Amino acid sequence: MKRTNAFTLIELLVVISIIAILAAFALPVLMKSMERARATECANNLNQLGKGFTQFLMDSDDSMFSIQGTGDDAWPKVMQRKYVQGWKVYRSPFDKVTDVRPKDETGNVPVSYGINEKLFDTLKSKWKPPTSKLIFAAPAVQKTPGKTIRWEADAFSNQNCKVKAGGGSEGFGTHQERDTLNVLFADAHTAPMSCKDFSDESSENGKERWDPTFERENP
């Protein structure tokens, strides 16, 4: 009797099992690669915003945005009108499109980043900490139960990037198991930072990162 070229049921099950095993190994690698790509895009967004902030400060005689600014006077609107016009830059790739935060390029567009609250209404020329250590901006997120995060800011608001990590300092970041986020420093360079270091505002290092008026006693 001639043997047909069709697979038997057992052969099909073996092939499916092998594919499933390979997929199980490949999926974590794929997810990590996608996370790294999103983290890189997020850092690029902050770099572009950093260039815009630098130009804004030069045009404003070192004066920072007003903390009272809302609506068309909020910093995202001020920045978008002249310095960084593409709204895509203001949205983190980790900030997923939802009904509450739709994909929008006009009006009340979702914004993922916030500014260090203590920098509002200040003069760059008066900042005392090294600008390479002073936090300028970062993803504006709030911690929710577990390691999920919540995004709330939009183009009409002056959002604050300082996170009060209720219940602990870990688990509110955007990547690396939610324990890390990208940070833009006042010298316009961007680097990843652990949530633990980011949320520290009591040690000397923490004060140097968050308070533009802080000055070490023994520098």
Task: Describe the 3D structure.
The chain has 219 residues and is an alpha+beta fold. The protein has one domain (9-210). The chain has helices at residues 9-59, 75-82, 195-198, 204-210, and strands at 113-115, 135-139, 141-143, 149-151, 180-185, 190-194. The protein has a four-stranded antiparallel sheet. A two-stranded antiparallel sheet has the order 3-4. The radius of gyration is 23 Å and the shape is elongated.
| Parts with pLDDT < 50 across at least 5 consecutive residues | none
**Spatial order of strands in the largest sheet:** 1-2-5-6
- Calculate the mean pLDDT score and round it: 87
Number of strands: 6
Spatial shape: elongated
Q: Considering DSSP H and I runs of 4 or more, what fraction of the residues is helical?
A: 25-40%
Order of helices and strands: HHEEEEEEHH
Can you count the helices? 4
Distance, first to last CA: 91 Å
Structural category: alpha+beta
For the sheet with most strands, the description reads: 4 strands, antiparallel
The value of Rg in angstroms is: 23 Å
Assembly level: single chain
What percent strand? 5-15%
**Total domain count:** 1
Summarize the topology:
Elements: H1 9-59, H2 75-82, E1 113-115, E2 135-139, E3 141-143, E4 149-151, E5 180-185, E6 190-194, H3 195-198, H4 204-210
Which key phrases capture this entry?
32% helix, 219 residues, two-stranded antiparallel sheet, four-stranded antiparallel sheet, alpha+beta, elongated
